[in-house]
Amino acid sequence: MAYSETVKNFNRIRDDMRQFYVYGFKSRDEYTKKSGRSYDDERRRLESWLGDYVQFRQTPEKKTVFLSIDSRITHHNPLYKAWKTKSFTEGDITLHFLLMDILAEGTFSLSEIADRVDEMLSEFTEPKTFDESTIRKKLKEYEKEGIVLAEKRGKTMYYSRPPMEELPSRDVLDFFSETAPCGVIGSFLLDKTEEGDDLFGFKHHYITSALDSEILCALFPAMSEKRMVTLKLVNRMEKDLKPEEVVPLQVMISVQNGRQHLMAYVPRLDRIRSYRVDYIVSVKTGDVCERYDELLNTFRSMQSHIWGVSTQGQTGSRMEHVEFTVRYRDNEQFIHERLEREKRCGTVERLDGNTSRFSADVYDVREMFTWIRTFLCRITEIRFSNEELEQAFREDLERMYRMYEIE
Amino acid sequence: MLFSELYSTYYNAVARILRSAAERPVDKKELQRLILENAFGESLLTIEPALSEGRWQLLLPGGSSVLEKAPEMPLTTLQKQWVNAISLDKRMRLFTDEPVLYPDVPPLFTEDMITVTDRYSDGDDYEDEAYRKRFRLILSAIRKEQLLRITTENRRGRLVKRVILPLSLEYSEKDDKFRLIASGKPDGGTYNLSRLKSCSLYNGEYWKEDMKTHTVKMRKVTFELYDERNALERSLLHFAHFEKEVERLDEKKYLVTISYDRDDETEMVIRLLSFGPMVRVTGPDRFTELIRERLRNQKELFG
């Protein structure tokens, strides 16, 4: 098939965009799941959409293409461009602009619209023709999207266009398109406004979640209608897994690594667990779940023991306890403040003017390791209820001493 | 449906072309300019012939539009639902007391469907009337390029008055805080909005040309990454928002170089430490020494 800048199926590019951006070291040969031509096409598309951010590294053995984006300098998430690349036919685009123009004039029946389409196109030497069923199909599609209104009068269907409505200000769209879930929709709205100055910058800004927007767009309505969903999943090795029927309860977003998880009750396992949203390929909405409120309440009561997203430790024990003490100088009171603001479901006690203790009871202490390590150089004491985990933590520390040759 | 041609760059670019054509015929040069400005790098190869050869029958041979009017498209249900969802966000009141709402559709999501797991708990107080007033004043001053007189507290707790030219507002999702980026004399700076003691328009004489922007001094750190316990993916996602380069050294080992703001060096040190033995900083020596110092101190504490 000839190369095209646009694509039909978003899932085809979803993973590649992430790989180019997050990994940035893969060469042509390392995209093993694709043919060489397919890789070349995707690389070409990427360069066309995101030219300013695409970089190359050439070594004697290989050429690597990667995306390098400093999100502090970039005011708008460049990955949103991927959502604006849907392919269409010659008829689709022609009919789109004609229909919007015709319906701006008032309310018309299908045959009146068809006549008007013919009339408008008659100025071309070889006018396209659209039969009524094609136009009806397009109008139905637009009715579903909310950009066409349909009303039956007697046996005839009449079509009109909803009024043009006020948009939020550009500042509002600028800000929330980068900070709210499914912000790409804000970016679609920004495309309807005149260009303006970008007044906002973003620090600690994770942009990859943009690629999972369609999954969230399917999960949110299911959650608000308290419905079951069937998830089509892939695992880390990108292998398809068996579809899983679950009750979606909560979307968990990390602002420190950009990951998004769905917390869901799984009837097959009779427990609540997390699913990475980027591993969900599709969502099919099912029946209303009669137990939804009860399950949501159960999840809410569990939340005070969830550090990240895990609801089960690897050791199998129900709950694990951890506590550690940090010491700081008189002019380092910010350490206590850090503990306070970062403690999540834990508890912080000030033992004296220079010592504070953190403690927590969580399902999975291993999730806390990375955070605890940010206090290295100050930890005077640490205790895990699970000896195996304590040993693992201390072994990691010993490895670090050896790596940096600390005597 | 989110992935729809209705939101596509091609449709938007064609809408821009037809808006121009509604005013006066669009010649070849103008057509090319509009495509280059509003579409992707290679879109010219598709859009221009499709319109000029009449495959997309929207532009007549003379360059005028086949439409009666400039093109418009109403909001889709999805767009309205998203706007309704953000109108419920507590930060919306920073911008307006009367957010735009579409009563005919439900919000796409509500606050109780989402938990941010790791946001710091001492974020800015958006309920504070004075904060909101300040926010709006700053936003308007940035747009109008107006000078502001601000009072801040220095490290010794003394109040310092400054005249600044506000440039942008920087938001951190992790801190849930806004910072004002401004130029000033003798140097520009970054000010936490919540720490401003006062902020008002400055009408006195001041030469904007004399004002300097605070230059961000970038530094680089290089580290080896050992891909155990899914560390490759975890760390590259964690550092995804930096400008970076990654090179595979062998099956399990990668070399990563990240550019960071010098002012954020301590944060970078603890972020790298948090990956434990999966990350080993290899340079520059000064940075490696910062890591070693922390580890030395830790070893002394544990004995």
Account of the 3D structure:
The complex is a heterodimer of chains A (407) and B (303). By secondary structure, chain A is α+β, with helices and mostly antiparallel strands. Chain A has helices at 10-23, 36-50, 90-103, 110-121, 132-145, 170-179, 184-190, 213-224, 292-302, 334-342, 369-373, 387-403, and strands at residues 54-58, 63-67, 108-109, 149-153, 156-160, 200-203, 227-233, 244-253, 260-266, 271-276, 280-288, 320-327, 347-352, 355-362, 379-384. Chain A has twelve helices and 15 strands. A five-stranded antiparallel beta sheet of chain A has the order 10-9-8-7-11. Chain A is elongated. With 303 residues, chain B is an alpha+beta fold. Chain B has four domains: 1-73; 77-113, no CATH class; 129-213, SH3 type barrels (Roll), CATH 2.30.30; 218-302, 2-Layer Sandwich (Alpha-Beta Plaits). Chain B has helices at residues 9-23, 28-38, 44-52, 77-87, 129-144, 231-238, 265-273, 285-302; strands at residues 114-116, 148-153, 159-172, 177-184, 189-192, 198-201, 212-213, 218-226, 243-248, 253-261, 279-283. In chain B, a hairpin with a 4-residue loop joins strand 4 (177-184) and strand 5 (189-192). The radius of gyration of chain B is 26 Å and the shape is extended. Classes of the chains: A alpha+beta (407), B alpha+beta (303). At the A-B interface, helix 1, helix 2, helix 3, helix 6 and helix 7 of A face helix 1, helix 4, strand 1, helix 5 and strand 3 of B.
